[in-house]
Amino acid sequence: MNYVTTDLKELAEHVTFASKVEMDEKIYEYLARLQADEQPDSVIEVLRFFGRSSLRLLGVSFAKYQTIADSVGISKSTVIRAVKRLVEFGMIDKLPTVKKWRGKSRKKSVNVIRILPTLSNMITQDDNAIEDVESAPSKASGNEIISEPSNFNHTQKHVLDTTDTLKHAIPKKLYEVMSPFFNVEGLYETIGALYRAKATVDPTIQAENHPEYIEAFLSCVRRYKDGKVRNLLSYLYTTWRKVSRGIYLKRMADVY
Question: Lower Cβ count inside 10 Å, N or C end of the chain?
């Protein structure tokens, strides 16, 4: 097995992103995928930690498991399981390292974690039948425009918790249409619903390139304001999933 040292100059060679905006956007996408797959909060929080701790060397984190555990508020063994799960999803990889000592001796050190710019091994959930839009499940209450779900409530600042960061992380077309309707938390959750809906059908679809997503969004908002929809988030999710299915089927028809 090849080891790298924890020397910053050497670690700089393993940087995986060209800019913080690019890294934030990818983390945001991965978080949406984890939510769609209903992964435990611990997995989501560990990925967030890697995002927060990868600012000096973009995409590269080298904290000890115990440090992560203390920061996130979970056990070391839970951190190890969360890291394993993120590796299985292909969102991160690990580089075993050694620490240089005086002379020629070396000692095994922490694992360097790299947030990958593309999924190396995507895990997808079963594609169940689309549910009726009025009965689709949701973690939101449905009595307000959008509220942040419980697994997004935490005391530490998230890499995507400001309007400016969201503006750069979300495709411009989607941001311009959706941002007037929501605050930061609401916009964050709504985009997450879009990515989750898309991921259940075909995560490679670029929503900003398909006006159907925007048309569906505006239609859903109108129905919500008219009192015809009780839970906007559920309605958006199910509608966007149907849109994704239509785009996917059309794509397959064009191929064959």
Answer: N
Closest CA to 32 of 193, 209, 241, 204: 193
Please state the domain extents for the chain. Answer: 4-115, 150-255
Q: Are strands 92-100 and 4-5 parallel, antiparallel or unpaired?
A: parallel
Q: Which CATH class is domain 4-115?
A: mainly alpha
Residue 62 amino acid letter: F
Which residues does 172 contact at the CB level (< 8 Å), separation at least 6? 208
Q: What does the pLDDT look like over 114-162, one tens digit per residue?
A: 999 887 544 433 333 223 333 333 333 333 333 323 333 333 334 344 5
| Phi, then psi, of 99 in degrees rounded to 5 | -105, 130
Q: In what order do the strands lie in the sheet with 4-5?
A: 4-5, 92-100, 106-115, 60-61
Which long-range contacts does 9-15 make (Cβ < 8 Å, 24+ apart)? 11/57, 11/60, 11/62, 11/112, 12/57, 14/57, 14/59, 14/60, 14/95, 14/112, 14/114, 15/57, 15/58, 15/59, 15/60
Prediction pTM value: 0.46
| C-alpha pair distances (Å), 102 with each of 99, 105, 106, 110, 111 | 10, 7, 8, 18, 21
